[in-house]
Write a structure and sequence with these properties.
heterodimer; A: alpha+beta; Hypothetical Protein Pfu-838710-001; nine-stranded antiparallel beta sheet; B: alpha+beta; transcription coregulator activity (chain A); transcription regulation (chain A); nucleus (chain A)
């Protein structure tokens, strides 16, 4: 899972987007690079909001509760799964087998800052089914607000970075242009890329040899689980974020940034924890069979996209 | 998606015979199934007292639509995970070293001692609406959806999505397929320690310690067809015709019937 940053440049419904400007600036800022499209990419996001929060606040009530969101995201560069990002329930769910005795008007007593979000990844087949389920069976608390899509994104390789550009179009409820997305992915060497992904049965195969096995990783870094700590991962994310920011600054564009947002890197840390745990009981000698793809890959960039695309209206 | 079904009650003394009849009819061996079924309930909808105020930026039509949504139904839904007999009565993976002797797995020499790993459990969300009312057809027809969920702990995601864990049970049974009809002969098992836990179990007790929901040990026979496009009258009709065909074939053994609609009500009150 590479380290990425996402920028969003909003635009007015009737004006043209910043896409051509970004492309021009990219060419101007990196004159030595051959900036030619190497591929296409696409994105779709469906955003749901808590139904109650959509009602106008009446004069009898004080502050409305924090809005809650549920976001469905699919990315063409992570085709093996879709992402669902949901606000945690603000009030703790009432204990089962017992009628809740919350405030009657449904307003939580305390107004803590926006609740943290829960990331879930699901197989592609579940993506549409679950969306339909929530819009059918959960109407009292989930309401579909809009669908956004990047239908025709372009991918460029610029030095050690891969840049994905694309215009965001709203398709539901009305068709309109929302702005331009820029994803900047670091493709240089990274400690994060060197942490192996656990296989179906939770083992790590030969890569996880707690030392001794010299494996030429793609990143060119040869490490074992004992060499990495969670603080190293944090440091890696911070360092890479500054590289991405530097890259973005060279374009001289104004935009909404999402890089080191809450939750980013948590799947990588979880992978490291599992690897360290598995290191003590390694089973070497099994072939590195094609297992199921890491269900958590792309969770960081999905978070970043959903952070910038969480519009209120 | 729509599910069309017929049901029958099968007393325990008839179970063995019916299994063989079904194997003969379908020309297949029964596929034994064990499933963990977690029941989740949608959060109680908040009352609407004092929420109707004047607004500038909300059209009257929107307001009506929102109020209609807020007063819509809430449902129970199930999260189902397939398990195997070896998953029962095993201890957690961490205790593997201390598990060596005296457990239920001891007689399975040679095979690696299996242990149930909740973190690796696969799940799917299964939703069933209350059966449709006023249909002239004599089958139980209900709107449904089924979607695979991530492995491991689903409670955090389910809570965020608006569902509370209520309780869980196990279904054991045998599955057959015949002419596009799935035939599931099954019964419900309860956990011996009751349902006082607020979370799904991380480990499963020994299968022999599970208690029967229906004390007599009788089984339920459910024959069902899942129709992808429930709005297509033609395919819905064909599906019920298939079910009636099966009902005729099984008539000497069991009587397949439409279920009582309200007994299959999944709405949360």
């Amino acid at each position: 899972m590479p380290i990425t940053g996402v920028y969003f440049i909003p635009s007015n419904p009737n004006s043209s987007t910043a896409l051509s400007t970004v492309t021009e600036r990219l060419r101007a800022a990196f004159p030595d690079e051959d900036i030619a499209p190497i591929g296409r990419w696409a994105l779709e996001q469906k955003l749901l909001r808590d139904t109650l929060g959509l009602l106008p606040a009446s004069s009898t009530n004080k502050k409305p509760p924090n809005p809650r969101y549920m976001q469905f995201l699919s990315l063409s560069h992570y085709p093996t799964h879709g992402f669902i990002y949901t606000s945690e329930p603000a009030d703790k769910p009432p204990a089962p087998n017992q009628t809740p005795t919350g405030p009657v008007n449904g307003i939580a007593p305390d107004h803590s800052p926006a609740p943290p979000m829960v990331m879930t990844t699901i197989p592609p087949a579940s993506y549409g089914t679950l969306f339909q389920h929530f819009t059918y069976a959960c109407q009292p608390f989930w309401s579909h607000r809009f669908t956004l899509a990047v239908p025709n994104g372009v991918v460029y390789d610029v030095g050690d970075f891969r840049v994905r550009l694309g215009d965001v179009r709203q398709t539901v409820p009305t068709a309109r242009v929302r702005g331009t997305l820029v994803e900047i992915e670091w493709r240089g060497p990274s400690v994060v890329e060197a942490i192996p992904v656990a296989r179906e049965d939770g083992s790590f195969g030969s890569v996880a040899g707690a030392g001794g096995i010299d494996l030429e990783a793609d990143s060119g870094i040869d490490i074992s689980a004992a060499d990495i700590e969670e603080s190293d991962i944090d440091a890696e994310y911070t360092a890479t974020a500054s590289l991405i920011r530097e890259f973005w600054a060279r374009l001289g564009m104004e935009g909404r940034e999402a890089i080191l947002i809450p939750g980013v890197g948590s799947e990588v840390k979880e992978r490291l924890r599992r690897w360290k745990k598995a290191g003590s009981r390694t089973d070497i000698g099994r072939d590195d069979a094609e297992g199921e793809p890491d269900p958590w890959s792309g969770a960081d960039v999905a978070r970043q996209f959903m952070e910038v695309l969480r519009f209120n209206r | 998606m729509h599910e069309q079904s017929l049901f029958a009650s099968v007393p325990v003394h008839q179970h063995h015979e019916l299994l063989q009849q079904l194997a003969g009819l379908t020309a297949m061996q029964p596929r034994h199934c064990l499933e963990r079924r977690l029941i989740f309930k949608a959060f109680r909808k908040p009352g609407l007292a004092g929420r109707t105020g004047a607004s500038q930026d909300l059209q009257q039509g929107d307001l009506q639509r929102l109020n209609k949504m807020l007063n819509g139904n809430l449902y129970y839904t199930q999260v189902i995970g397939s398990v195997s007999e070896q998953d029962f009565g095993s201890t957690a993976q961490i205790d593997q070293d201390t598990q060596m002797a005296g457990t239920d797995n001891a007689e399975r020499d040679g095979s690696p001692s299996s242990s149930y790993d909740y973190e690796r459990q696969s799940w799917r969300l299964e939703f069933r609406d209350i059966p449709e009312a006023g249909t002239r057809s004599a089958v139980t027809s209900r709107f449904m959806s089924s979607a695979a969920l991530p492995r491991g702990d689903v409670v955090q995601a389910m809570n965020a999505w608006g569902y509370n864990f209520v309780t869980e049970y196990v279904v054991e049974g045998d599955m057959f397929v015949h002419n596009g009809i799935a035939i599931f002969l099954h019964r419900v098992l309860h956990y011996p320690d009751g349902g006082d836990s607020n979370l799904p179990r991380q480990q499963l007790p020994a299968l022999k310690d599970m208690t029967l929901l229906e004390k007599s040990g009788s089984y339920v026979l459910q024959a069902f067809i899942i129709v992808q496009d429930g709005s297509n009258q033609e395919t819905m009709k064909t599906a019920s015709q298939h079910l009636f065909g099966l009902r005729e074939q099984l008539k000497p053994a069991v009587l397949l019937e439409q279920a009582d609609r309200l007994s299959l009500d999944t709405r949360a009150k």
